[in-house]
Amino acid sequence: MTIGAQPASGRASFLQFPISSYPDPYIQLDVSVPPQSTAWRAVYVTSIDLHALVPVSVVEITALNGTPVRTMVNLNQDTLAALMIQVPTVTEQNAISVTLSDVDALLNALDRLIVKKRDLKQAAMQKLLTGQTRLPGFSAASGKQNPWLIS
Length: 151
Prior knowledge:
With 151 residues, the protein is of the alpha+beta class. The protein is built from 2 helices and 5 strands; from the N terminus they run E-E-E-E-E-H-H. The chain folds into 2 domains: 2-81, no CATH class; 90-135. The longest helix has 41 residues, at 90-130.
């Protein structure tokens, strides 16, 4: 697939954002498609001209009879305006935003709780290993023999 021309006062690329190891804009893409299959690829376009044409050519290199088949696709504002895209209402968008904010707050609270529990565990281990704290039944005052002492 090849992007034939850049839109006036804009840019068309197969990559949404430039990547250092690829040319910018990235306008040529080789795609292998198995027989009886389809392939699609997004084209990212920015332009101040709402009616700018972005020709994308698709060439089938090996057709059944050995001759290349060429297809030309044009994307413009008129073509895109005919598409039906469902967008949530403002009320739904606000509800989604509130829900995601609540989930984010819950995850942050859980992260803080995990850190707190880890700190408590570490403090308890330090007190037990240094002898500052003794478990019941393992002190000399209890009168019981410490099973961990080797005589």
